[in-house]
Amino acid sequence: MNERGSGMGVEMRRLRSAKGIYQSESGVTLVELMIGLAVGSLVVAAAFSTLTMSQKAYRANEQVVDMQQNVRMAMELLSRDVKLAGFGSPGVPVGNCTSAIVPADQNPGGVDTGPDSVQLLVPTTRSSGDNRWTLRVKTASTGITQLLLQTGGDGAVKDMGKSGLAIGSYISIGGSATAKVTGFDASAQTINVSIPPPLWFQQEDPIYLLQCIRYRIVSPPDPGDLCLGKAPCLTRGVAGATGPSAEAPIAEGIEDLQLAYACDGCVATINSGIPDRIIDDQTPFNGKFDQNDFLSDGSWAAGIRTPDKIQLVQIALVARQSKEDHGFGDVTTAVVGSGTMQVSPDHTVPADPNHRRRVLRKTVETRNVGF
User: Fold this and answer.
1) pLDDT in tens, 166-190
2) What are the φ and ψ backbone dihedral angles of 258, each rounded to 5 degrees?
3) In total, how many domains does the chain have?
4) Domain that holds residue 359
5) Of residues 135, 132, 178, the one with CA closest to residue 156
6) Does some domain include residue 216?
7) Is-contact 94 214, C-beta < 8 A?
8) How far is CA 168 from CA 164, 236, 250, in A?
9) Kind and range of the H or E run holding 190
10) Based on the domain organization, do 107 and 134 belong to the same domain?
11) Do 176 and 285 lie in a common domain?
């Protein structure tokens, strides 16, 4: 009995202890629940706002990076061609290029209201691969009537044909001899030319196709869809051509191109207009080289001011973001834009309330072998 009574006592104490625990627990009141919900809502709202700001900041930074990459790539391509303009010049017009550099100021008579353009006589080649544009065998010094090019892949001559090679085109061999193409055979990988003795060339000497390349800006709405739905853009190619050499977009988001030129021999009162390897001091004359010596408007077609005297080209490109930035908060109406920009002495870009923009400038020394 004692053991049984002792066991029952222990069990009763356990029951009373459990009952006490249950009685000590209490529920959540309505007021406490509402306070908890309010605090939780504030936390969630703050987290959502932070996430929204982070996403917008990420998109904005991504667009800035894309914009910078686009304008730098465009500047690299354009400045490279300006440097090469006139390489291997035959001394006669090639396509629309009546000179190595053909300025096309948007308004030669005064202040520009839109972008400029330019045409450049530049060499094109392929320096690597089985179908590289190089000589398959060396030539003789007794006169050259036919060039043998690489046969690998589709063949160099066929590849050159895709890039615009035609009868009447001009090619340069290593930059030391330029000749007119009188015929070619893509299956035999041969090009017919006439190069008098005593010139001769080694195996693997490069062949350059000389082309008149135009750079210009295509603005919205781009009815010809040249920007592939991403106007504005900068295009490069042979104007009016078809195939790979035709004008095509090379950088999207480029909305303006402004060009200014410094020359040697463009002022009749300086050394009688004869080039003397010194950049002309333009009006106002101050005896030093400065921004005033770059000509950003006016005609280069006739008179003493001719394109063959251009020694420096100042390039200004304006790039903009492809999409709008709606600020960094959770409000969708606050758009980030850009103000008025002075791109060149004769051109100002009006404010854009919807897009960020960047101006990139570079001065390039030209080869510019005159005709």
Assistant:
1) 999 999 999 889 999 999 999 999 9
2) -125, 135
3) 2
4) 51-89+96-117+252-371
5) 132
6) no
7) no
8) 11, 22, 27
9) strand 190-195
10) no
11) no
